[in-house]
Amino acid sequence: MPLDEIDRGLIHALHIDGRAPFSRIAEVLGVSTQTVARRYRRLSAEAGLRVVGLADPHRAGRAQWLVRLTATPHSAQDLARALARRSDTSWVKLASGGTEIIAVVHTPAGGADGRSLLLHDIPRTAGITAVSAHYLLHTYLGGPTAWRGRANVLDPRQRRQLAPPARENAAPSPSLSPATGATPTDDDRALLSALLRDGRAGQAELAAATGWSPATVARRLAALRASGALFFDVECDDTLFGATTQALLWMTVAPARLEQVATALARHEELAFVAATTGRTNVVAHALCPDPAALHHYLTHRLGGQRAIHALETAPVLRTVKAAGPLTSRPARAR
User: Fold this and answer.
1) pTM above the 0.90 mark?
2) DSSP three-state, residue 330
3) 3-state SS of the chain: helix, strand, coil percent to 5?
4) Tens-digit pLDDT profile for residues 167-207
5) Which class for 290: exposed (0-12), middle (13-18), buried (19 or more C-beta within 10 A)?
């Protein structure tokens, strides 16, 4: 399905504020609220558009591992689907001709009790021929930062109109004694789970999921957002934006130049994700390009100019089995 300016503007608006009311988006785009709601429903059904609420992993006390699995061709797809069904995984991708699975695995930071997937389940899974796990040390691009290929429609004035209000002093609810700050706690688990399923869930639905009043939900949501402990991501089919060729890039960078190189890469419009990791390679990036020729040009011209990159491995992405949010069989509802 081709995207027009209204579709692109709507998606860009959701990247700015995933919970922005359709009425506000409509006013900024210069169309009716009904048009925005109708476009959202169509994009949800036909392009996989969805808003998901995500807790900042560091504030939530979670560690993230980027796991690479090499599997036999007949077992790779089944394994990828099995990983995608787990609650502790995200961004499950099939790469390298369908024989490599790449996934982000979430574990409790500093503890061994949540690492069953890394230490127990994966080694016992039949069909796997190689495993490597890379601890995500620092994210330079990704998370709350949208890929520029989706966020290049609205002008500065429109972006300011959509920016969520800054509420650094948003007060937490006095009824939530453990959750008195802007760091997620066990009391926030039901709220965060509901937002992970649907980042645009209404206050009444969130109140039903948490057992709180709508006013308490609103205050807690505002506090988590204002502190950066909670952000919203947008899932959508990137091929609709012309990104028909995707690849994960594993780079070895001189440690003294890592910060400089990763910061420079984070400004490249071809990249949607840049992070520093542990392992044989120490920088990973996700490239989205219009075609193989464009990827080749990027690798040879832009990355080729970074002399501190000593080695580069390219793993073409065939399919994203799971993105940031949990698997769902139904499109998100319009709000």
Assistant:
1) no
2) coil
3) 40, 25, 35
4) 443 434 333 333 445 788 889 999 999 999 999 999 999 99
5) middle
